[in-house]
Design goal:
- The chain is of the alpha/beta class.
- Strands 21-22-23-24-25-26-27-28 form an eight-stranded parallel barrel, surrounded by five helices. A six-stranded antiparallel sheet has the order 3-2-4-9-6-7, with no helix packed on it.
- Strand 18 and strand 19 form a beta hairpin.
- Helix 1 runs parallel beside helix 2, helix 4 packs parallel to helix 5 and helix 7 packs parallel to helix 9.
- The two termini are 37 Å apart.
- Bound molecules: alpha-D-galactopyranuronic acid (ADA).
- The site of alpha-D-galactopyranuronic acid has 10 residues, from loops.
C-alpha cells in the first residue's frame, strides 16, 4: 500500500500490486460465474481502473482480476484499500468475502493450505441493488476496478486488528491507545509499546479469543502537531510475533464560540474540495499524482481540503499530515433521493462505510472533521432520522472530532442542530444571481444560520464556484470563461477575508476538473462532459483563477 510509513515490521506482508490477469465479463451475474471457466485473456494494472484504459473505456459490467502467490499454511488476510464499487473475493475458487462500496479499506480472511494460492476478484462497476452507495446521477464518473493497493498478510496465533491513538491532553502530552486484537485460542503473550523508538510500556497479557486493551501514556518529549508545525510521532505495538505501527500527531480539535480551534487556537479554513479522478487513471491515484496535488494545495496557500465526496486515498492523508493541511473526510454521497436515503439497505451500507472510513483515517492528525451525505434531503422529515443515525455513528466511533455535512440549501435545512459545524454549499453568481450579489448572499446565509439559534457554531461555506472551460475567454467575460471564474472567486474570497467575520471556512469548488456522469441531465450541463469548476484542469494545468486564489490565500 502506498503509505509514508511501514504499518508492520514483524508481520509477514506481501504487496500484491502489479499486473494481474484480467477478463471483462460484461453483463454477467456474479452468482452465475464459474471461476474455473473464466477466460483470462488480458492484463490489468493493480491499482488501476479497467474502464479508464483505452480497451475498456466506458464499459459497465463485471470484470475478473486474478493473481497467484505462494503461501505457507495458516491464516491469511487480504487487505484491499479500495475496490470500485462492488466485489467478490475468491481464494482458490472459493468466495471468501463480498464487499459493497468504493474508497474504503476492507479485508478478506481465510485458512490457507501451503502451496500457490489463486486470488480472483470479481469487480462490478454497475449501478443497482448490490451497490446502494453508488448512483449513476452523481456528478462524477464512477470508474471501476481495484483502484487502490492490495496486500496479503500472514496472521499467526494472535494478531492485532487495529491500534487507535487519540490525544487525551495536549497540555499534559498524553495519548490514549486502544489495541484491538484477535487470537486463534486464549494465550498469554508479551506486549511492548514503543513511541518514537522509546519503550513506553511492557506487559505479559492474557488474551481471550478477541478483545481490547486500553492505555494512557504520557509522552513528555512529543511536541504538538499544528498546521504551522505538523510534527508526527510513531507508535509501535508488538504483541507476541505480531505488530502494528501507527503515525499520529498530538492535537485537539474543538468548536468554540463559532470558531474551529486546533490546540485552542482559532483557524480560518481556506481551501478547496478535491475529487480523486483522472482521465487516464480513473479513481486510482498514482503516487506522483497525489504528491503533485498536495504540492498544488501548498502552493495555493490552502490550509484546508474537503475530500469530496468520499474517503480519500490513505497516502493523500499521509501527505496532508506532513504538510499540516486540515482535512474534512466524508462518507460517500451525492443528492440521494429521499426514497433511497431511507431504504434500510442503504442505511446499513452507509454505516459499514462510515465504520471503514473512520477505522482507516482516525489516526491521521490532519483529519479534523467528519462529514456525511453531501447535499442530501436534510430538509425533509424522512431524511432527518438518517442524518441523526449517521452523525450519531460518527460521534460514537470518534468523540474527538467535530461532525458536519454539506447542506444543499441553508434556507430550508432542518438538521443544523445535529452538527458541530454548519456547512453550506451555495452557488451565487453561477446557478443564481450575479457576481455582485455574492457578498449579500453570503451574509444572508450567515444571518439565517444565526437566527436559527446556531450563532455559537462555526459556519463553513463548503462549496462555491463557477465553471471555466480551460483556456476560454471572450470580450464580455461571459459564463464559462476563465475571466468570469476569476472574478467570481476573488469576490468570494475578498468578502470572506475582508468583509465579514462570521464565516470561518471556505472550500472552493473544486481543485481540479473531473469527468461527470453520462447521465444526460447532468452531462448536458457540463461542456466536454467535464465538471470544469476546477482551479486546474483535469491534467492539473492551472487556470487563471488559480493565480488569483493563490495571491489571496497567501496574503
Ligand atoms: C454541488 C455538488 C458538487 C458539484 C457542484 C456543481 O454542490 O456538491 O458535487 O456537483 O454542485 O458543480 O454543481
Amino acid at each position: 500500500m502506498a503509505r509514508r510509513f511501514t504499518e508492520h515490521e514483524h508481520r509477514h506482508v506481501e504487496a500484491l500490486d502489479g499486473v494481474w490477469d484480467f477478463a471483462y465479463l460484461g453483463d454477467t451475474d456474479p452468482d452465475e460465474v464459474d471461476p474455473a471457466a473464466i477466460a483470462f485473456d488480458d492484463r490489468m494494472a493493480v491499482p488501476g481502473c479497467f474502464d479508464a484504459t483505452p480497451a475498456y473505456a466506458g464499459r459497465r459490467g463485471l470484470a475478473a482480476y486474478r493473481t497467484r502467490v505462494p503461501v505457507e499454511a495458516g491464516r491469511h488476510r487480504l487487505v484491499f484499500d479500495g475496490v470500485q464499487h462492488w466485489c467478490r473475493v475468491l481464494w482458490n475458487g472459493e468466495a471468501i468475502r463480498d464487499h459493497a462500496g468504493g474508497f474504503t479499506r476492507f479485508h478478506a480472511e481465510t485458512e490457507a493450505e501451503a502451496g500457490t494460492a489463486e486470488i480472483t476478484v470479481l469487480v462490478d462497476n454497475r449501478f443497482g441493488d448490490r451497490s446502494p452507495l453508488h448512483m449513476e446521477h452523481f456528478d462524477w464518473y464512477h470508474f471501476g476496478g481495484i483502484s487502490r493497493g492490495v496486500e496479503l498478510h500472514r496472521l499467526g496465533a494472535a494478531w492485532i486488528d487495529a491500534v487507535r491513538v487519540d490525544t487525551a491532553s495536549v497540555a499534559d502530552r498524553r495519548i490514549s491507545v486502544r489495541i484491538d486484537y484477535a487470537a486463534a485460542a486464549p494465550a498469554s503473550l508479551p506486549l511492548a509499546v514503543e513511541c518514537d523508538g522509546r519503550t513506553v510500556h511492557t506487559e505479559q497479557v492474557d488474551l481471550d479469543a478477541a478483545g481490547t486493551l486500553a492505555y494512557e501514556f504520557e509522552l513528555p518529549w512529543v511536541a504538538p502537531w499544528s498546521p504551522q508545525e505538523p510534527r508526527l510521532s510513531t507508535l509501535a505495538v508488538r504483541l507476541g510475533g505480531d505488530d502494528r505501527r501507527e503515525r499520529f500527531g498530538l492535537r485537539e480539535v474543538r468548536t468554540e464560540h463559532g470558531r474551529i480551534t486546533v490546540n485552542g487556537e482559532a483557524v480560518t479554513l481556506l481551501g478547496v474540495n478535491r475529487h480523486e479522478l483522472h482521465p487516464q487513471f480513473g479513481h486510482a491515484q498514482p503516487e506522483a499524482l497525489l504528491v503533485a496535488d498536495v504540492q498544488q494545495l501548498r502552493d495555493l496557500g490552502c490550509n484546508f481540503v474537503r475530500g469530496s465526496h468520499y474517503p480519500m486515498d490513505p497516502l493523500f492523508l499521509d501527505l496532508c499530515d506532513e504538510s499540516g493541511i486540515l482535512v474534512w473526510s466524508e462518507s460517500i454521497g451525492w443528492q440521494y433521493p429521499v426514497e433511497h436515503l431511507t431504504d434500510p439497505a442503504f442505511v446499513e451500507a452507509q454505516l459499514s462505510h462510515i465504520d471503514e472510513m473512520v477505522a482507516a483515517a482516525r489516526n491521521h492528525p490532519s483529519v479534523v472533521l467528519w462529514g456525511v451525505l453531501n447535499e442530501c434531503p436534510s430538509w425533509s422529515d424522512q431524511g432527518r432520522p438518517v442524518y441523526e443515525r449517521l452523525l450519531g455513528r460518527l460521534r460514537e466511533l470518534d468523540p474527538t472530532r467535530p461532525v458536519t455535512y454539506a447542506s444543499l440549501n441553508a434556507f430550508d435545512d432542518r438538521c443544523f442542530d445535529l452538527v458541530d459545524v454548519v456547512s453550506v454549499n451555495t452557488y451565487p453568481g453561477w446557478y443564481f444571481g450575479g457576481i455582485a450579489d455574492i457578498p449579500a448572499e453570503l451574509d444572508r446565509i450567515a444571518a439565517h444560520v444565526d437566527a436559527l439559534g446556531h450563532a455559537d457554531k462555526p459556519l463553513v461555506i463548503s462549496e462555491i464556484g463557477a465553471g471555466a472551460v480551460p483556456g476560454w475567454n471572450d470580450q464580455t467575460g461571459s459564463l464559462w470563461t476563465e475571466d468570469y471564474q476569476t472574478a467570481l472567486l476573488t469576490t468570494v474570497i475578498d468578502h470572506l477575508l475582508e468583509g465579514q467575520d462570521r464565516i470561518s471556512g471556505l472550500g472552493i469548488w473544486v481543485l481540479g476538473d473531473f469527468a461527470t456522469t453520462q447521465h444526460r441531465e447532468m452531462a448536458l450541463k457540463r461542456p466536454r462532459g467535464v465538471n470544469d469548476k476546477g482551479l486546474v484542469d483535469e491534467y492539473r494545468r492551472p487556470k487563471q483563477a488559480y493565480r488569483a486564489v493563490r495571491e489571496r490565500f497567501r496574503r
